[in-house]
Design goal:
Layout lengths: L7 H12 L2 H13 L3 H29 L3 H8 L4 H33 L8 H12 L2 H20 L2 H28 L5 H8 L8 H15 L5 H7 L10 H26 L10 H11 L4 H34 L4 H21 L15 H39 L8 H31 L1
Helix pairs in contact: 1-8, 1-11, 1-12, 1-14, 2-10, 2-12, 3-4, 3-9, 3-10, 3-11, 3-12, 3-16, 3-17, 4-5, 5-7, 5-14, 5-15, 5-16, 6-13, 7-14, 7-15, 8-12, 8-14, 9-12, 10-16, 10-17, 12-13, 13-14, 14-15, 15-16, 16-17
The protein binds tryptophan.
């Protein structure tokens, strides 16, 4: 018997757990600040509503209808389309490879917080701590290994036992904690400039690169485009209403990203950091915000602990896509598959970890190092490609009428069915394709 979520709430928390992760807490604030602030946020939200929500629903529907993980789901409806599943599995390997790099940083920061080593207000010292870590290969690889080991140990336990239980406690705790940090950030003197930067769009900052990055960020953050939601949806019982999950999950995800932005960016302005800091932004700014609060170190510990949780509920969803492929399609058993895949991804991730420090000058594609190649290749190329194919598949192969039947099978009425059909059949594929073509060009230009 195939495993199932024990309840709808369990599914929502797990799906939101997959969506909410480093993409929201670490990537969104720094992507927003390096891509023009408010303009990026405005485009992001527009993409979310027009492209993200319809595709989230399409993915969950495909999984629930077929009760199969991503590869089997496509194959069972049309054999020629199973390659989309393969693409998703490959994409998962590369995302998790660099995701575990950052997961390792978070674990290192948690250790540091536990030892009281983060209670610092001086931006320069905090910047140095981050740079030192980037240049310590042994620690990077060690913590990345621990992160992968934690991910593997949860996935080994299967769906309702591991993933669901973990999400139920961690998600709500993270939400409350973030709100506290955001409030603290906003009460710092000078924080208002940060709020303006984040929410008053300067439309002159919009260019193709900002658009490509906003789309990539949206897919990354929602976990859409590689089959995570198809796979998670496949463990849903037929009697559950899936319609509202297509809105609840993106809404929760975006709320967390925006609150993380509010927690980090205003503090950047108030405390005199560089907004264009890049991947170190969260690690350098937040400890300074905590250090300015009473019991700051307790906040440091609690925060990094919750970030560990949030990233684990995401990393397990990526690993689960690959594992379920080998379990469902290749009849391999769960335990050895999980262990081997985990090890392969860890190996793939080592160069990503090193490329932020001692391998900084090693460009594998043009100037891009391993970390950037994995990131750009997945967020800007593979995820939009997967999302485009999911869209064409749902609109024209499975057909939206069939999908709507599945959505309504639990007895709900899908009032926006017509609009959804038009979006899935025409608007989303055309829009994504235009940006995708530019992404390909951009990617190849940056290589040569
Ligand atoms: N969405 C997660 C985050 O924001 C990361 C993630 C999990 C993901 N599963 C995914 C991204 C599948 C892309 C595809 O941290």
């Amino acid at each position: 018997m195939r495993d199932k979520w024990s309840s709808k709430l369990g599914f929502i928390l797990a799906a939101a757990g997959s969506a909410v992760g480093l993409g929201n807490l670490w990537k969104f604030p720094y992507s927003a600040s390096t891509n023009g602030g408010g303009a990026f946020v405005a485009i992001y939200i527009a993409f979310l509503i027009i492209i993200g929500c319809p595709l989230m629903l399409a993915g969950i529907t495909l999984g629930r209808k077929t009760q199969l993980s991503v590869f089997g789901a496509y194959k069972s409806i049309n054999k020629n389309w199973s390659f989309v599943g393969t693409l998703g599995v490959i994409c998962g390997f590369f995302i998790l490879a660099f995701y575990s790099t950052v997961g390792g940083w978070v674990l290192y920061y948690l250790k540091n917080a536990l030892l009281g080593g983060l209670n610092i207000t001086d931006p320069n010292v905090l910047g140095e701590i981050f740079n030192n870590l980037m240049n310590s290969p042994i620690e990077l690889i060690l913590y990345q290994f621990i992160f992968m080991a934690l991910t593997v140990s949860i996935v080994l336990k299967g769906i309702s036992g591991g993933i669901e239980k973990a999400s139920k406690v961690m998600m709500p705790a993270l939400f409350i904690m973030l709100i506290i940090v955001a409030i603290r950030s906003l009460t710092l003197e000078g924080s208002i400039e940060g709020l303006k930067f984040l929410f008053m769009p300067d439309f002159s900052k919009i260019n193709m690169e900002v658009i490509i990055n906003a789309l990539g960020q949206m897919f990354f953050s929602l976990s859409v485009g590689m089959g995570t939601m198809v796979t998670y949806g496949s463990y849903l019982d037929k009697k559950e209403n899936i319609l509202n999950t297509g809105v609840i999950v993106p809404a929760l995800d975006t709320a967390v990203a925006l609150i993380a932005g509010i927690a980090i960016i205003p503090a950047v302005f108030a405390l005199g950091f560089e907004a264009t800091e890049g991947p170190g932004l969260m690690f350098i700014t937040l400890p300074a915000v905590f250090a300015s609060m009473p019991m700051g170190n307790i906040f440091n510990i609690a925060f990094f602990l919750l970030v560990v949780f949030a990233s684990l509920t995401s990393s397990i969803s990526m690993l689960e896509v690959a594992v379920s492929y080998f379990v469902d399609e290749k009849q391999k058993s769960r335990v050895p598959s999980t262990l081997i895949i985990g090890l392969v991804i860890f190996a793939l991730g080592i160069p990503a970890s090193l490329s932020m420090g001692i391998w900084q000058d090693v460009g594998i594609l043009g100037n891009l190092g391993f970390f950037d190649v994995y990131d750009k290749l997945t967020s800007n190329i593979l995820l939009p490609t997967g999302a485009f194919l999911l869209c064409i598949f749902t609109g024209w192969v499975l057909k939206t009428e069939e999908a709507i039947k599945e959505i309504e099978s639990s007895g709900v009425k899908f009032k926006l069915a017509n609009i959804w059909s038009i979006l899935i059949k025409y608007v989303v594929p055309v829009g994504v394709l235009i940006i995708l073509i530019n992404s390909y060009i951009d990617f190849f230009v940056s290589i040569f």
